[in-house]
Design goal:
Layout lengths: L4 E4 L9 H10 L5 E6 L11 H7 L7 E6 L7 H7 L3 E4 L7 H10 L3 E6 L17 E5 L14 H14 L5 E5 L7 H7 L3 E4 L1 H9 L1 H9 L2
Parallel strand pairs: 1-8, 2-3, 3-4, 4-5, 5-6, 6-7, 7-8
Helix pairs in contact: 2-3, 7-8
């Protein structure tokens, strides 16, 4: 049985209590912390930047899974790496040269993630798969929390998993967007091993984070 990891999105946390929310996530069994960074340009929303990540770093030792929805992304990689990101995930559409941006992340000894929007085909990154640690498949259009899961991404997850097996590669398959108790098993069975969830983890079962993380891991 493969190990399933949960990366709670702090987009759904109480922003006035982010430090204590992160501690609570760690104590409740979160494997990493998913940080959504939006610039109001690449996606229609604004969130947090490197100074906030740096200030939050002291609250936990578990990995910061930082998803950069910003464009142009390349020039900001250094800032997020130095702020305390452990995994830096970028979109191919947000850089002029994906290979250069992958190498830039590597330069800071960080794990490399590349994200695919619902309409972005795997072929866009197929030649890069041997160079990355994680593929983040978006199951909603990035920009806002609380959206409904787009079911046709299941086929994309399956296809990516088959490529991974065929080429004997070792990258993680992470899925983000509308993940809940009714679809998590399907997503895991399709090939995902990391689930990002915000609303479900923070809101379901009267906000019982530990229970919600455990339920998402069951399959």
């Amino acid at each position: 049985m493969k190990k399933i990891q949960i990366s709670p999105s702090i987009l759904s946390a109480d922003f006035s209590e982010l430090g204590s929310e992160i501690k609570k996530l760690e104590e409740s069994g979160a494997d990493m912390i998913h940080v959504d960074v939006m610039d109001g340009h690449f996606v229609p929303n604004l969130t947090i930047g490197p100074p906030v990540i740096k200030s939050l770093r002291k609250f936990t030792n578990i990995p910061f899974d930082v998803h950069l929805m910003i464009s142009p992304v390349h020039k900001y990689i250094k800032d997020f790496a130095e702020a305390g990101a452990d995994i830096i995930t970028i979109h191919p559409e947000a850089t002029d040269n994906l290979n250069e941006s992958i190498n830039e992340i590597r330069k800071f000894n960080k794990k490399v993630g590349v994200s695919l929007n619902p309409d972005t085909d795997i072929s866009v990154i197929e030649n890069n798969l041997q160079d990355i640690d994680l593929v983040l498949i978006m199951s909603v259009y990035p920009g806002f929390g609380g959206q409904k899961f787009i079911s046709n991404v299941i086929e994309k997850i399956k296809k990516l998993y088959e490529i991974k097996k065929k080429l004997n590669l070792n990258f993680d398959i992470e899925v983000d967007g509308g993940i809940n108790f009714s679809n998590s098993e399907t997503v895991i069975n399709a090939g995902a091993n990391i689930l990002v969830s915000g609303t479900t983890i923070f809101k379901e079962n009267n906000g019982n984070i530990k229970k919600n993380i455990e339920l998402l891991k069951k399959y």
